[in-house]
Amino acid sequence: MATKVDSYKKIAEFAKQLMSDTSLDNALLLIADQAKDLINADRCSIFMYDGDADMLWTKLSDGIGRIAIATESGIAGDTYTKGEAQVVNDPYKDSRFLDNIDKKSGYETRNMITVPIFDSQRKVIGLFQLLNKEKGDFDDDDLKVLTFFANYISGTLELSFLIKED
Predict the structure, then answer these.
(1) Fewer Cβ within 10 Å of end Cβ, the chain: N or C?
(2) pTM of the entire predicted model
């Protein structure tokens, strides 16, 4: 089992890969793969905030097409609104869970961890949502590692979106 220190070392090594490619799409794929590896999750979606539509939409999602939800919908919306990470180890018993996405995709979510991504002004610009830990439930160590990782990559995402707007 990897320790928290091992996870932080992986993040440092990951930085070398991330800095070698300036493409946002490639960066998102690297980020999602690294997030899954860090906490042994099956899937990762990266939701970004669209201020014009006041919606969250997946810039990247494993195994399903684009997902768009209102900022007040679901566990992802709650994470966005509160700006707080959440671990939900029994989502079907959580009234916020959007089970229609599982029904549409045929995927069964057993557990999830959702972590906000902040910009340099501490505004939430997006979030990670990782599903189905390989063994057992998500825990506080997973939350700490993924929160650190979200803070670590937030500047890269913010810069990529600023460059894209020019």
Answers:
(1) C
(2) 0.82
Q: What residues have CB less than 8 Å from 7, skipping those under 6 apart?
A: 38, 39, 145
31 HSE (CA, 13 A, CB side): 30
CATH of 4-159, one of 3.40.720.10, 3.40.1190.20, 3.30.450.40, 3.40.1390.30: 3.30.450.40
How many other C-beta atoms can be found within 10 angstroms of the C-beta atom of residue 116?
Answer: 26
Positive or negative: CA dihedral 152, 122, 46, 42 = positive
Task: Please check whether residue 73 is in contact with residue 101, taking contact to mean a CB–CB distance below 8 angstroms.
Answer: no
- Residue spans of alpha helices (H) in the chain: 4-19, 24-39, 74-82, 99-105, 140-165
The predicted-structure confidence for 54-93, as pLDDT tens digits, reads as follows 999 887 666 666 788 999 999 999 999 999 999 999 999 9
pLDDT band at 131 (very low <50, low <70, confident <90, very high): very high
Read off the tokens for 159.
């810069």
| CA distance linking residue 159 with residue 151, whole number of Å | 13
